[in-house]
Amino acid sequence: MKGGARPHPLVPWAMWGLGASFYCYAFFQRVAPAVMVGEMMREFAVGAAIAGMLSGLYFYSYAAMQIPIGLLLDRFGPRRMLAGFAVLSAVGSALFAMAPGLGPAYAGRALVGLGAAVTWVGTLKLASLWFPPRHFALVTGLTLAMGMAGAVGGQAPLAAAVTAYGWRGTMWGAAVVAAAMAVVLWLFVRDGVPSERQEDSRGSFGAGLILALRTPQIIILALYSFTMAGPMLSVAGLWGVPYLMQVHGLDRTDAAFTTSAMLVAWGISSPLTGWFSDRMGRRRPALVVAAIGGLVFGWAAFYLPGVPLPVRQVLLCCMGAMGGAFVLSFATAREHAPIAAGGAVLGVVNTFCMASGAIFQPLIGWLLDLNWEGGMVDGGRVYSAAAYGTAFTALLACQGSALLLALASRETFCRRHE
Predict the structure, then answer these.
(1) What's the pTM value of the predicted model, to 2 decimals?
(2) Which CATH number is 140's domain given?
């Protein structure tokens, strides 16, 4: 590839695939507490609010690092960043697995989130180095689909592993996987030969960040990402499994299968939404329709009386499919900014997106504790249908806000700002 020679057509896909595999692992870790929340609440003798905080710490450290990650990627390149942060994920997972109490568990979970912080932006950085810009929307959707594969692994398969080996043994396994991934990323990822139209923001990231924060449309789209991702990260990422078990009587594996199906729908709809938007040459209609759909399906799944359980599960999957439109906020926000500000825009939007999990997972837990009626099973709190109904009103408010933000967005006609 010296002298400007083009790489083999499969090389860009291989480089992207390595980064996307780490993102797949990161999403597995993101949703893993959903099938372990009962065991963690019993072992640490805590309620839903603390369990939500324990899970949400991943999002706090992840979201806090998104803008700095852009700077670090420009300075050190994806290879060193991805491999180094995989080591942090391995250490954090091991610390979480052997935590004797809440303090070390908090530290381990936060470190897992810190290690995962590079995965989304790092993979998209690899895409910008190895692919021409016209493929960015497709690769973004495919990257999220890889994340959903990890999320599915963090549901029903993880539930079976927890049943067989316990949550601590399972997390030790996750630590080993992250360590092996660090070695593979270091040995095989290359920062690559930039494409002829590579987006290089080195030296202008600070100016791009200021521009992103001062552009109302970018903030609107970042908030849209926040409001569309929040319900999915809260339901499929943590509270969906205990809700289905405690309110609808499913066992853990079947409940995890349902949340896995939500995530599959989310992952499939993301590239399809991007493709459909590209074919229309418009962004705003897709943003609006997805927000309406999320609100309607969410209300029907949680509050429509007399719905048979299989139909309710289908409604939850439809809610997940609507959530996939959040990836359009990344492409649309980039189209509202000059090329040089692209990295900053990605960092800002992803910060808002991840903040939704950090806020809504503990918020749902706090609302559950507030409405707890005193029920206990095997030393763990059990919440009534009424408690879940009250807690999930926060998610409907979130999706209603997404609709208002979509209506406030301005059409870009899929063209970049000049």
Answers:
(1) 0.79
(2) 1.20.1250.20
